[in-house]
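In practice, a research group might receive sequence data for several interacting partners and want a quick structural hypothesis before committing to experiments. The following worked case mirrors that situation: the sequences arrive first, and a predicted assembly follows.
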Amino acid sequence: MGIELHHLNGISGGWGVVAKPCDTCKAAAAAVFCRVDSAFLCLNCDARIHCVNKHARVWMCEVCEQAPAAVTCKADAAALCVTCDNDIHSANPLARRHERNPVEPFFDSADSIVKSSGLNFLGPNGNRNSEFSGACQQPEEGGVESGAWLMPPSSKLSLENTNEMKSGDLFFSEMDPFLDFEYPNSYPNHSAGMDSVVPVQTSKTPQIQVMNNENCFDIDFCRSKLTSLSYQTQSLSQSVSSSDTGVVPDGNSMSDISYPFGRNIAGPGPNVPVSGTGTTQVTQLCGLDREARVLRYREKRKNRKFEKTIRYHSRKAYAETRPRIKGRFAKRTEVESEVDHLYVSAAAYMADNQYGVVPTF
DNA sequence: CGATATTAGTGAGCCACATAGAGGG
DNA sequence: ATCCCTCTATGTGGCTCACTAATAT
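A structural hypothesis for the assembly, expressed as tokens:
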């Protein structure tokens, strides 16, 4: 299992699946889905195509990055496609209680929305962060640094755990209650780490009422992908469950849910930068907070490590050479006596049957 | 359609023992 | 301060079993 997971690890897309490529340029990951054209587009292609024809578009699912987002979940602070929404919010009763809203399509240039969200998408070196810059750039393995500039100074000051710093959690500690998709303890006694996880419940009860909403898509873009990789589904549920061990946050506990790339779907109002104009300082702070959450979420997905970590290779080497009886470690004398017994039995059997072939055990 | 039986998948626990690390002399 | 010894806790992999979910009858 560890080997299989190792293969999955490090693949972009977080859950081990490459993000859906742009239908136009094929080179970049799709960031939006045009309902009129039924096309997945990166930000650059979207800006080029929809600068004139302002079709209704929606952002991609933040989890699978394979299907257009259908709903947004406040608790998870994420826009999800129908499939991911089903998977995540059927995990346990708490998850079902997550308040979700149908996505609102936007008509302006996605890139302008990104820019108008109040976010500074320029990284420390002046480069736009790959996660939000449209996907028309190859994702860089920036890791921790990619998010450092996003966080307010207070967040950095509140950090105490140096291990968190190493693992890339440094800049997002305050988001833990709702976006803490901790990867499991890689030590062998990982069960201890999983004890806090709400048991996965895979009931197939219909989910939310927004499925039939006109803003939602009834296309199952990624079901086959998720179900074909059973581990992904499992880890998905577990990860979400781990975030659900707390209470479902109310609307005041966090900023309003917004789409990736800084858009906000809190509903019609002055703070909704859907039109790309009229952003306020509050919106900027919410957008910043939102982007930090999303970025941290994605970083954790990217850095997730499932393979077993060997701390002492000498012990591993020794364990591999040690004698076993039915998988359990056995005393050497015990094994020797057992081998002796088998040998005696085999020898007697061969003697009785006049066999001259040495048996194998 | 519900109840029951079967199959498949998953994870915890067990085992012995070398080794790391703490503590005392 | 350093070395040596003793003791305890830890970690390691393959297998079995219990449990659950899915599927078949």
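Before designing any experiment, note the following. Residues 187-189, 202, 310-312, 314-320, 322, 324-329 of chain A lie near DNA strand C (CB under 10 Å from a C1'). DSSP finds 15 helices and eight strands in chain A.
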